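Predict the 3D structure for this chain.
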Amino acid sequence: MSLKTLENTVVACRLCPRLVAWREQLAHDKRKAFQDEEYWGKPVPSFGPDDARLLVCGLAPAAHGGNRTGRVFTGDRSGDWLYAALFRAGFANQPQSTHRGDGLELRDCRITACVRCAPPDNKPTPTERDTCLNYLTEELRLLKQVKVIVCLGGFAWDGVLKVLRELGHRAGRKPRFGHAAEAKVGPYVLVASYHPSQQNTFTGRLTEAMLDQVFGRAGELVS
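Done. Predicted structure below.
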């Protein structure tokens, strides 16, 4: 399977009835601020070059972010923080990500998520998570240059560890999640970050300096 074939398979996926119903309801009952926009309303594929050495993994698309724009971490506050940090670290050509076709290009970096559909209350069920992680497993098989995986939040940390076990890579005792934590798992180095959600950025749990620390470290590791 090629990455393009995998992307087409992801976008056409209807394996989780609850997620299908929710993402399509969101696309129909639009947020007032986006009434004039056509929502994507489908699973959101990964974004970035196929030969990237850095992979960034989040939880799932936002209801009115990726589920609206069709690009991961695009059109929401979390994405504002993430892409600004990637720009400062040299992994993106611009600090904003507003919509597909906005000129954004990633450099040596690819962005994905454990779950490709927006889940109700941002909480996929374990079955939904495991069903969708099969796509991430296949993606990592195909991404031959990835050396570093930045996991945004504990959900992504656990999901990536599960995928790596499926690929035959184990770290012995399970590495503990914590901001800026690192773990060597098979050929990969995992770097953890608090998720750039409003819950974390508004409260100061995650600051720009903390996010810059993570991507600065990722840059050192891939060089």
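Strands lie at 54-58, 109-113, 148-152, 182-185, 188-193.
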